[in-house]
Structures are given as structure tokens and as C-alpha cells.
Amino acid sequence: MSTPEKRVQELRKKINDANYNYYVLDNPTISDAEYDRSMRELQELEEEHPELKTPDSPTQRVGAEPVDEFGTVEHTIPLLSLNNAMNEGELKDFVDRVMRNLESGKVEFVAEPKIDGLAVELIYENGVFATGSTRGNGFTGENITQNLRTIESIPLRLRGDKLDVPELLEVRGEVYMTRSDFEKMNEEQEAKGEKVFSNPRNAAAGSLRQLDPSITAERPLNIYLYSLGASSGINIESQMELIEKLPQWGLRVNPNIDICEDYEAMCKYWQNMEANRDNFAYEIDGVVFKVNSFQQQDELGSTTRSPRWAIAGKFKAQQEITKIEEIEASVGRTGAVTPVAHLKQVIINGVKVTNATLHNQDEIDRKDIREGDWVVVQRAGDVIPQVVKVVKDRRDGSEKTYHIPDNCPVCGGKVVREQDDARHYCTNISCPAQLKGRIRHFASKNAMDIEGLGEKLVDQLVEENMVEKIEDIYSLRKTDLINLERMGEKSSQNLLDAIENSKEIRLARFVYALGIRNVGRHAARVLVDAFKTIDNIMNASEDEIGDIYEIGPIMAENVAAFFSEERNLKTIHSLLDQGLKLQTPSKAETEKLQDKTFVFTGALENYTRSEAKQLIEDLGGRATSSVSGNTDYVIVGENPGSKADKARDLGVEILSEDDFEDMINS
Ligand code: IVH
Prior knowledge:
By secondary structure, the chain is α+β, with helices and mostly antiparallel strands. Helices cover 36% and strands 21% of the residues. The chain has five domains: 4-61, Helix Hairpins; 74-314, D-amino Acid Aminotransferase, Chain A, domain 1 (2-Layer Sandwich), CATH 3.30.470; 319-394, CATH 2.40.50.140; 432-583, DNA polymerase, domain 1 (Orthogonal Bundle); 587-665, BRCT domain (Rossmann fold), CATH 3.40.50.10190.
């Protein structure tokens, strides 16, 4: 008979093997559903038998609590950077220099793609993932262990039997995001009204530097390992041996690594990679050549900045010169008004380019870009082409300066500039260019919370012209809904019920749902606290809004601009006419938890962290992340962390989820 202990071992092995087959061998062996089932079974067993829980269990990837800041890690061996070869001549110089400086004449090089991500170091102690850090300044990095633990392609324990696992293994590699994951994630971020990233590298870096590991866990990060730091208990003599050994420990390496016997082979590898760079799922910004033998690497040594045994071969900038025929303001799904240059067509690395983004007005001013200018245009990966600079010598006086218009080119709505952001935005909530994004935000969980009104359905409603303005949501009829794709009698009714239920809504949620630029949940609450009713908010002047503590001048301008847009007022009045009831919490209610500070530890059953936080803030309290003498209550959920112990030590009152619910409902 299988004991729980045995079953736990079995499940862990199954899950670890599945990750290994999927990530390292690129050869999935079980279905997602089976993987999820095994994970759930393991979680349940560990719940029932907490004594079987171990830190390296695959259930323990996300468990750590958010931190206020990262600690630092001193690298035992510095993480150096690389010298660049800009062309084949410079590569030849490198090869000659290496040959000259080595005793024996025979030398091999290992050629690798240069992954455009973020360098990290992983430290395994007796096979267990102990510490992970960023490169930092090369000598000291940030301790991002808890975030790295959430990346499924990083094993929490090395594979192999005890004898084969080193006492100490420091490995370096690159955390990256694929282009398709990057685009998908940006779409999701945009739909949630959250920060979008400019390229996969920034997205990977931003995701890894989250203070809350549960956010990192949701980001599609991946890793390739490519070099060795300090180690003991292993005997590896060359880079290629390392690249062959790492996968046996379950560490992922890039499949496109080759040996090059001579300079000609290196050039060939470089050319081949450059020609194929767009065919990789991830961005590579060059190739790296390393002397294969570790003994020869030592012989060559390093400068303080970079090793003498390695070099990066950069890819040619993908640039051409062409003429800007016209500049046009284009309105995106978020209402961002972006100036786009229409170009006389050029071919850059085989791709036809007719448009380039000019980003924003500041960029246009800084580069002094005018209509009619000849410009250098650059294409990087599949990111939208950009204007690098103006060729001023080719001006003939006919060029025209450009300013983003004051009114939206799509709907005529007022255009304003966003806080901390160089971009301009259209303020009309019903602007057709941004309707989908607006509705998705309006219906989202922390806004009107209309369950069922998700992305696909919103797309259909807008494309079928069933919703042309936000308020049209409230006049949808079942007969129309039933005819949509994937909508039946039942789901249509559920949606109509959810829409009906959303009519009774807290004012702060409604203000947030309007999607006013810069007005997140907190700012919405601040506005409601200050003005109490929607009429007061609508009638407030920019100065009155700006006078509120916590509301800055740009936010005040955005709020005032939003409510001075006729079309928005019409939408609000129309929503009220259709029966929307905006509830302002009574004073007693907003002050229920006045000045009380809460900290959470462990998972709650009925709320996500952000819901619980919102609830506390709605009632006048504060939710913070670490326990101190100033904490009033610690709410303890499933699998509490060390914060519960700390609370006990400090004598802070501990509440269960039930206690907490009693408190807010009293
Ligand atoms: S080796 C001492 N190999 O490039 C050698 N680096 O400019 C250290 N990188 O910070 C690096 N792919 O972030 C190496 N296959 C690869 C690489 C790679 C990307 C990055 C790494 C490093 C930077 C150096």
C-alpha cells in the first residue's frame, strides 16, 4: 500500500520529471491537465501532512511573502561583461590575440547565441537551489531568490544521484521572455490598465524585479544557463563539457551552441545566426565566442571589466535612410495618441518598412523630427521600426514641424498628457479606437466586477456594433446575446444577471471603472472621500481637485479634463438614468478600521490579497507588508509564513479569516 510519504515522493518525481522533459529536453511527456492534477494532489497531501512539506517541493515555488526591498548578494567570482566585435576584422584581431597569448597553438572556440535578457546567478548548495541574484554591478547583485524560485525551468533541486551532485555549484545564465509571451503579456497588462513594456528584455527585467514573488510567478519567464561561477566537487574542464553537463542536472542550455575550430567557422556561425535572428522565439542581440578549454581561459585571464578569452559578435544595426512623407496621430486601444511617421518605403534586412513610431511629442522635439525630413530608420527584432535621427544636411526648407493635435483624430475628444508619461491620451470614454479596452476595464474585477464580460465577448460586442458606448452595456438584450459565438441561453442570462448586479456599486469603484488616466483604485477612493458624491466630483474645478492631499497637479488636470468632456458626462448621466446606484459609504463605515494597520500572511480562502487590501482600505484601514510594533492585526490564512511567528513574538493580535470577516461585518 502506498503511504502518504511514498505518494508525495512519487508525485514530486513526476512533476520534476515533467518540468525536466518539457523545459530541458524540449520533449513534453504529460498533458497540462495531468500535470495540474498531480500538482493539486501533492498540494492536498502536503496540507494533510504538513510534516512532509519540504522547501524544494514543486508546490513551494510561490510561497514567499512580498518584501519591501531586495537584499544584496556578493558574487564570489565577479560577473564580467564582454568585449564587442563590431565586424569580422575585429573578430580576427581577437582570435589572433588569443593565439599569441597561449602556450600551445591549438585552440577551440565555443559559439553561442547572445540572449537578450537579464544575467542572473544561481547557487546550488548540495544540490538545493539556495540563492539567486542579479548581475548588479558585477560584484554585488540583488537577492532575487524568491522570484527565481517561481520560474519553472529553474530546478529547486538538481537532478542526479547524491554522488553526482556537487557540494557547491554557481551557474550563470540569462532570464528571458519569448516574443510571443511578451506580446501576450503586454496585451493582458494593457487590458488590466497596467504598465506595458517596450521590449521582451525590459519585460523580463521588470518581472524579475517585482517585490511580490506572486507577481513574478504569473510572468512567462524562462532561463538559459551558460557559464560557471565558483564550484566544488565537480571536475569540468571546458565550456562544452559544461554545456553538456548542465542538462544532466536539469539546468537548461541553449540548443544552438557549437564548437568552432577556426576563425572561418566562427564567421560562418555569426553570419548564420544573424541571418536567422528573426526565426528564434526569443531575441538574440549577437553571438558569443568563448575559448573552450578552462585551462586556456585561466591562462588568458581577465581585465577588471571583461575576460580576454571571450568576445561578443554584435549584429549589424538594421538601419536605412528614407523620407518622412507625413506624420499622423494614431489612437491606440488605451487612448494613447501616438505620432506615427509614414515613410517612403524602404527594405530593412528583407522587410518592407512604411511606418515608424515617433513615440511621443518629447521625442519629436528632442530629435527635431519634421514632416518631409530624411531620417535614419532602424528595425530591431520584430519591434516596430523607429526613427534614429534626422539627416539634417538633406533639408531644403520645405519641412514642417509637427504637434500632436488637441483633439482626437478618431472621435474629436479632448487630448491631454499623462502624468509621468510623455504620451498624450484621448479623454473620451466612448472613443471608438479605445472602446474595447475601456469596456474591459469598466467590467473588470476591481471596477464594476461584471463576471462573464471578458475579452472575447467584448471584442464581439464591439465588432457587431452592439456596444458603441459604455452605457450600451446596460441595454443589451438576451435575444441579441444568444446569437453570439459561444453564448447560450444560460450564459446570456448569467451575463445579464451580472450586469444587473453591477448596478449597485460603491462610488469609488465606479470612479475607478471610468478609467480616468492616472486614477487607480487608491486615487478613486481619495476623490470619493474628498467629494462624497459623483455630482461634486463632476463639478469640481481643477484647482479644487489639485488641493486634495495626495492628488498631484497632473492628476488634477486629467480628472478635470475627463469631466469636462461632454461625451463623458453624457455617459455618466445615461448610466444613472439606466438605474446605476452609486453608494457612498457612510462615515461610520469608512471609519470602521480608521488608522488600523493590517498585515496578511498565508493564503485567504475568500479573497485575493488585492481584494482584502481593497476592503480594508474601503473601511479606512491600511494594509502593509511587514509586521512591526505598529501593526494592529495580523490576518493568518493557509500556510502562514514567518510573519505569524513574528506577530506572536511582538504580541500583535492574530485574526483568522473568520475573525476578520466578523470584524468587517459587525
Ligand atoms: S558569457 C564572462 N554567454 O551578455 C562572460 N553572456 O555583455 C560572461 N549574455 O552580462 C557572459 N548570452 O547577460 C555569456 N551565451 C552567453 C550570453 C551572455 C547573453 C549576456 C550576459 C552578459 C552580457 C555580456
